[in-house]
């Protein structure tokens, strides 16, 4: 990209697509390190995770602890607001309807697919991860990781800027992180918010059922599956987080109980970006409007 950008700007920009996809794969390796599953050695996982975190602009220790919290509350309606974000949680239809009108407008605006899946993802990695905004004061190691990551990134970008040119570095790195974040956040949101996902109250919630019924199994073309590090087998990951990404497909093929539900297609996954609420009466995810139902999903105005 650095060589091509001076010969043909459009051609150099096109290469941001495979580069961004490779960065998604690097994030999956970082994700495995966070679960202690990429290597046997804990030290090796920590070292590799920190290196990957620099490439993905993610403070590794801080992200790892927040992600661990996610693995304790996913698809649990009574614990969903514990360390949650707009991509892994949702309101119920009744809760949404009970909001004041201005809060409903804000809730819908932030979760519109263009905002949630195009505008916000790059901002999360470029800006939000630069501050420990949601990290408790007593998480000293995690807060320190944010500042150390920022310091190292600043040094790396300055070095690259003096070597290759500041405009070129900012343009190319921005393009790559935009592509990677949009793909990665879509995958992240789809893992628990899809048409057949199941959410339960605390008394009905169980680890196994939440894994198999509340986490997605996404069928991707072989190339996309490689770039995304087999994360499409997310139901297996939640059931057994210590299984590394390169063993997930083998688990899927070896255990019939993991294949009882039809996998999501890419098309169904793309349509799922409209789903933002849990309908407790219909027991399914729904969209806000008839535009969402036109894609095959029910809506708040016209519930199933």
TrEMBL record:
Cited InterPro entries: FA_desaturase_dom, Fatty_acid_desaturase
Membrane spanning residue stretches: 7-28, 114-133, 145-164, 170-190
Pfam family, any one: FA_desaturase
Biological process annotations from GO: lipid metabolic process
Keyword Transport listed: no
A GO MF label: oxidoreductase activity, acting on paired donors, with oxidation of a pair of donors resulting in the reduction of molecular oxygen to two molecules of water
Keyword rRNA-binding belongs to the record: no
Keyword field: Membrane, Transmembrane, Transmembrane helix
Residue stretches making up the Fatty acid desaturase domain: 11-258
One CC-aspect GO term: membrane
PANTHER family named in the record: FATTY ACID DESATURASE, FATTY ACID DESATURASE 2
Name the UniProt record assigns to this protein: Fatty acid desaturase
């Amino acid at each position: 990209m650095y060589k091509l950008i001076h010969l043909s700007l459009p051609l150099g920009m096109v290469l941001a697509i495979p580069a961004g996809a490779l960065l998604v794969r690097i994030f999956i390796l970082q994700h495995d390190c966070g679960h202690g599953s990429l290597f046997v050695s804990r030290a090796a996982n920590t070292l590799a995770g920190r290196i990957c975190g620099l490439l993905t602009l993610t403070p590794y220790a801080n992200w790892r602890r927040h992600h661990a919290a996610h693995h304790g509350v996913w698809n649990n309606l009574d614990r969903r607001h514990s360390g949650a974000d707009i991509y892994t949680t949702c309101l119920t239809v009744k809760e949404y309807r009970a909001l004041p009108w201005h809060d409903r407008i804000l809730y819908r605006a932030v979760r519109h697919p263009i905002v949630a899946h195009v505008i916000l993802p790059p901002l999360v990695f470029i800006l939000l991860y630069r501050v420990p905004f949601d990290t408790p004061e007593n998480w000293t190691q995690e807060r320190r990781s944010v500042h150390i990551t920022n310091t190292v990134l600043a040094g790396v970008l300055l070095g690259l800027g003096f070597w290759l040119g500041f405009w070129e570095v900012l343009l190319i790195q921005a393009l790559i992180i935009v592509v990677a974040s949009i793909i990665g956040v879509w995958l992240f949101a789809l893992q628990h918010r899809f048409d057949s996902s199941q959410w339960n109250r605390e008394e009905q919630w169980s680890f196994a059922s939440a894994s198999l019924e509340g986490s997605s199994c996404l069928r991707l073309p072989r190339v996309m599956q490689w770039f995304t590090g087999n994360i499409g087998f997310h139901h297996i990951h939640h059931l057994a987080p210590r299984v590394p990404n390169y063993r997930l497909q083998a688990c899927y093929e070896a255990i019939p109980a993991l294949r009882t539900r039809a996998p999501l297609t890419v098309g169904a996954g793309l349509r799922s970006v409209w789903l933002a609420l849990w309908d407790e009466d219909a027991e399914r995810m729904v969209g806000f409007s008839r535009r969402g139902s036109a894609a095959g999903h029910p809506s708040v105005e016209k519930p199933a």
